[in-house]
Design a protein that fits this description.
CATH topology: Rossmann fold
Helix content: 40-55%
Oligomer: single chain
Number of strands: 9
CATH superfamily: NAD(P)-binding Rossmann-like Domain
Radius of gyration: 19 Å
Distance between the termini: 37 Å
CATH class: Alpha Beta
Shape: globular
Mean pLDDT: 92
Length: about 325
């Protein structure tokens, strides 16, 4: 299959190009930044460049975007340009080129304020039925771009799958209290319980989405490591997360103590990937339980793919969370 990957210089795009080529596909990477996995250096808003790159393409994975950390360095107009026009252009050019399937990478940030229950309320149990309430321009443009995907799929019959990805970046957390209160890897392993996905699992679900898209027509899915919690525990995980985790994983306190790690006191949300597992046949490997097994064996809990790609930052020459022009 001939696949166009946009955002090919980013964390996910890099992984997609590497793995798809390893699978034997003919892959074209497109990004505004040059890289080893980028064949076409151009913006996704450049219709002529996108049209040329789309020639002969069978499938598209559209991961190019301005991310949440860009809010500090880019205007709302920039977000509308890249995240909306930069999604409409590939969609329309894919239709014109007769592309057979299109996967769009959205974000669980689209849910926004729906993820923040009031003090004393249970943790939010987040499925695809939760209505997004964007809290910033990033979330607003992701929701709008998802709607463009659905519109194009319905109007033109091109199969489109939207994947709302949870956190997968390797950089430090963008919230100061978390950066200061936890070792970076400690926090990322904690997040596998409720709001993180390993890069290798994210690449795998993109692969499956491409396979299943023609049968689905259109679909919108939460993509996060499988939580060990049930909906009956939304009160308990908000009030005393360590106790709930210890019941599931009796050896976790010992494994954490050896590293000087700690568990979050409580969480306000749990992402549920049941629909993606059911419809796409996806089974994430890098779960919290798997991370504990690797830690106990003296291994890094992250996938080889995530480790090999490492931190990229959000601007050329930047490897941090925050970005500057």
């Amino acid at each position: 299959m001939r696949i166009l990957v946009t955002g090919s210089a980013g964390h996910l795009g890099d992984g997609l190009v590497r793995e798809f080529r390893r699978d034997g596909h003919d892959v074209t990477g497109l990004d505004v930044l040059p890289s080893a996995t980028t064949d076409v250096v151009a913006s996704v808003t450049d219709r002529d460049a996108v049209r040329a790159a789309m020639s002969g393409i069978d499938a598209v994975v559209h991961s190019a975007t301005l991310h949440k950390p860009h809010i500090s360095s880019h205007s709302r107009a920039d977000f509308i340009d890249v995240n909306l026009t930069g999604t409409l252009v590939p969609l329309e050019e894919a239709v014109a080129a007769g592309v057979s399937r299109f996967v769009f990478l959205s974000s669980t940030s689209a849910f926004g304020r729906a993820l923040r229950p009031a003090l004393g309320e249970p943790a939010a149990w987040v499925t695809e039925q939760v209505v997004p309430i964007p809290r910033n321009i990033y979330g607003a443009t992701k929701v709008a771009a998802e709607d463009l995907c659905e519109l194009i799929a319905r109007d033109h019959g091109m199969p489109v799958v939207v994947l709302r990805a949870s956190r997968f970046f390797p950089e430090d957390d963008d919230e100061a209290d978390r950066r200061e209160g936890f070792h970076p890897l400690n926090l990322k392993v904690n997040e596998l319980l409720y709001r993180r996905v390993d890069l290798a699992d994210l690449v795998e679900v993109c692969r499956l989405a491409l396979e299943r898209a023609p049968a689905l027509g259109f679909g919108r899915y939460i993509v996060s490591a499988t939580t060990p919690f049930s909906q009956t525990e939304v009160v308990a995980v908000r009030r005393d997360l360590p106790a709930v985790v210890a019941r599931r994983y009796p050896h976790f306190p010992e494994i954490y103590a050896e590293r000087g790690w700690r568990m979050l006191d409580g969480i306000g949300r749990v992402y549920v990937n049941e629909a993606a597992r059911r419809d796409l046949g996806w089974e994430p490997r890098f779960t919290f339980g798997h991370a504990l097994e690797r830690l106990a064996a003296g291994q890094d809990p992250r996938s080889d793919l995530a480790l090999s790609i490492g931190a990229k930052g959000y601007h050329e020459g930047s490897h941090g969370v925050y970005t500057t022009r």
